[in-house]
Design a protein that fits this description.
The protein has a single domain, classed as 434 Repressor (Amino-terminal Domain) (Orthogonal Bundle). The chain contains 9 helices and no strands. Helices cover 62% and strands 0% of the residues. The chain is globular, with a radius of gyration of 17 Å. It has 143 residues and is mainly α.
Length: 143
């Protein structure tokens, strides 16, 4: 929650400033500097996960999955959403993963993304989510 308050404060300041360079100097320690690869590795370490298990649970091709995890390939937003299930991320963690990658977070006003948010909030795994998306008649993840 602390980072959300800091982000809100920064946005409020950005809405009213005239000197961007001064803003950057004031907030130089507040900007996110972690790479996507480092962020993913931190999650894996904190949750005590095995890379092979993450890739399997995300239903990613083994080689492609390892390329994402070691930073040799930049994943699409779709693949990151898929990977979020392998990493066992809740909604907030998924949104953070997408933001660290410089991608848009899930958006509740898009039916498919609302369904994914619902699944994240109910702790569905990827298979349960795919089934739910099919029942909801929206595109499954990774399709």
């Amino acid at each position: 929650m602390q980072s959300q308050k800091k982000t809100s404060r920064m946005i409020s300041q950005l809405n009213s400033i005239n000197d961007f360079e001064h803003f950057v100097e004031d907030h130089k320690d507040d900007f996110v500097r972690v790479s996507l690869t480092d962020h993913i590795q931190k999650i894996i370490d904190e949750k005590g996960l095995l890379k092979a298990a993450v890739i399997r649970a995300a239903d990613l091709d083994r080689v492609y999955g390892y390329q994402i995890l070691c930073g040799r390939r930049a994943p699409t937003r779709e693949k990151l959403i898929q990977l979020s299930f392998g990493l066992k991320l809740d909604l907030e963690e998924t949104q953070s993963l997408l933001k660290v990658a410089g991608l848009a977070p899930l958006y509740a006003r898009i039916k498919r993304e609302a369904a994914i948010i619902f699944c994240k909030n109910h702790r569905y795994d990827l298979m349960e989510t795919q089934s739910f998306l099919q029942k909801t008649q929206v595109r499954i993840i990774g399709e």
